[in-house]
Amino acid sequence: MSDATIDFSPVHGIGLFAKRHFEPGEVVFKPTGSVLHYRDYNWIFYFSPRTPNFGMHWLQISPLAYLDPKNWGKYINHSCDPNCGIRGRQTLVARRPIEI
User: Fold this and answer.
1) Confidence class of residue 46 from pLDDT cuts 50, 70 and 90?
2) Nearest of 75, 68, 69 to residue 9 by alpha carbon
3) What is the pTM assigned to this prediction?
4) Are 14 and 8 in contact (CB under 8 A)?
5) What SS3 state is found at 66?
6) Cβ atoms of 4 and 73 closer than 8 Å
7) Less Cβ around it within 10 Å: N or C end of the chain?
8) What is the pLDDT of residue 79?
9) Close Cβ partners of 13 (under 8 Å, ≥ 6 residues apart)
10) Domain at 4-94: CATH architecture
11) Given this model, what pLDDT does residue 39 score?
């Protein structure tokens, strides 16, 4: 992946970072993985045996669906003021200009 990299994050320990400037609407990254419906996610999260950090990297991609990322997507960190958002089901796009 040439446009983003994983690196140290002072907030979350490790995160996904841009390696170049992105304009709003431009594709930053395409996480891959399994899509789970909300009821399945809740069942797994609350009733199955868990390991530490279980589900902490899952991305909510719609009101009723979650993505369990299998690639660098697990390093996408949460923000209350995000510079990226999900378009469709599995495309991370810039919401505003991203500077490096």
Assistant:
1) low
2) 75
3) 0.74
4) yes
5) strand
6) no
7) C
8) 83
9) none
10) Beta Complex (2.170)
11) 75
